[in-house]
Amino acid sequence: MRQNNMLVTLSRPLILPASLLFVLLVGVTTPSVRSADKIEGDHVPTSDGDLIIHPLNHATFVIGWKEKTIYVDPVGPGKGFEGLPKPDLILVTDIHGDHLSPETLEAVVDAKTTIVAPSAVAEKLPEKLRKQTTVLPNGETKSVASISIEAVPMYNLTADRLKYHNKGRGNGYVVTVAGKRVYISGDTEDIPEMRALKNIDVAFVCMNLPYTMTEEQAASAVREFKPKIVYPYHYRGSDVEKFKKLVGDDSGVEVRLRDWYKP
To answer: What is the pLDDT of residues 179-190, one digit of tens each?
Structure first.
């Protein structure tokens, strides 16, 4: 008789409270708000999942990898980032308005976001954002959000362009994610530090006059440091088809042309 009672008890359906059932279902079916699955773009395979490259505008883009999201130079209305995961990491290269917008930063960060920037940028941020900022000078490397970030120089060489970007103020970056090295040039010319780069898997290289460099300068540098993939960006007014031709099929570099100036 005791055995029969046990059987009856176990055969009854398990009824969960509606609130608990909802939590369980949401936990299973809803992706993390930081999941790279929510980012559309080009895929770059790594040994541990794909990097996803999502151009936005001019110098602004997003990199996704698994549960990590990186924003680079986020500027413009906050609604331009709607539908994207909140950033774990934000890289800011320089103080100019096409790279730095405190208003945009305030709109996109949350409590878990870390901003990495040179000191010239940090000085222009409101106190709340400064508290979330790691200052990284040229030549230093830090691990932030489990991602290695090296700050590299960006500056002008040509006499009549020196007024735009002096050496040491802004940062380019080499970011290492899942063994892939991603170079972000920032505003620069074809400086020796760029030409000396090694083992770059993906490069974002600027070009536009009078502020940075010509298509010829950019292509010459790319042919020298030989990234596996290069994206021309920050190219308003430049001829990216010319750049691609100058890089050449014989360079071994894949040139990816994307529209960074959609209306």
So the answer is: 999 999 999 999
